Amino acid sequence: MTAGLRALSVCLVVGVACGCGGSSAGSPGIATSTPSADIVLANEARTVEGVVPPNATLAGLLRDYELPESMVSRIVTAAQSVFDLRRLRVRQPYRLVTLPGDRLSEFTYEIDRDAFLRVVGSQDTVSDEVEAAVVPYVKQRALMVLQAGIDQEHSSLVGSLEASGETVELAIAFADVFAGEIDFNNDLRQGDRFQLLYDAQLREGKPSGYGDVQAAEFINDGRRFTAFRYAVPGEGPAYYDENGRSLKRMFLKSPLPFTPRVTSRFSTRRLHPVLGTYRAHLGVDYRAAEGTPVRTVAAGRVVSAGWNGGSGRMVRIRHSDGYETYYLHLSAIAKGIHAGARVTQGQQIGRVGSTGLATAPHLDYRVRKNGRFLNPTAVHRSLPPGNPIPPEHLQAFEAIRDLALARLFDTSDTRVARAD
E-assigned strands of 248-396? Predict the structure, then answer.
């Protein structure tokens, strides 16, 4: 499988580096090891880079490079005046540049994705003064296109996107777009292909995070799904197909992320793995790792949340039109989930576990309507989609749709935006 990743446009500059020296030229490089070998520059400056080791202090870090105690003290004092050094975190990159005569040129430390600490020495060769500042990174937002697919080597959405150089964060955002249409636990097939148009956050010209998915196409087992992000005036943004029909349904297709598999289906007669007797299984079992987040499939109000005999820790939620959903064998229940609490569609309500009568971590998910348990996989198919775009806004939506489609299928721009 090949993956194409192209930068289409840079949309917004959201931060400008400033501080001592007037530019971001001294921002730290990303290091992946402990102190490296010295780099000798033409002006005889010494540059060392590394990442913060466990249990380190700034003073101890600097002393490792045999700096004079007076220089260590000046750097620590200046840094402490603008940044709480107790927030020094393990494996965060730093960079130290010193000049002949035991003078500091620059010390930088990456605080987080948004800013770095910068300590600079005086340009005056007879001065020992140093100045410190917390400097914001230069950030931009770029509109990106990614094309990939499902094959034997990459059989999941996460695996496919990781092979394209992306992370699980984008996979989750992408799956949420089609959560009402595609069950990413069970529906993926070899030969499926997809492409998406999404906002990427760039830091110092390199990818550092994701924004919203703006448009997407997914070919799943020969079926074509499209999605376009649009906000009807007076409402929040939502996703619609190319005809303006809502992709949101009353129930999501799955209460879990998209990597687990169904291990036991709805049945009126199943051999219970613990009790060893035949009895009805009124839900669907999803295999998942201990601690996997569990989300509610629809908005509603919590009926109960706590221990429930053989069901272990369980959350029960009442929805509209007489529906209720049950989430069994949880290892933990999310904060704020208690009887009477309101929940929104997709909200995390707990984590997968093996409490109660369970042989391994999994989620037993059940749906009941008007007192009768139903097959959860069949329920979703019977529910109508959300409201379509009103006729008076359809023309505006179509203009955004057509622009997004042109960007999704435009192959003329081959500028690679990834760091590699």
Answer: 261-264, 267-271, 278-281, 283-287, 293-295, 300-307, 313-318, 323-333, 342-343, 348-352, 362-369, 372-374
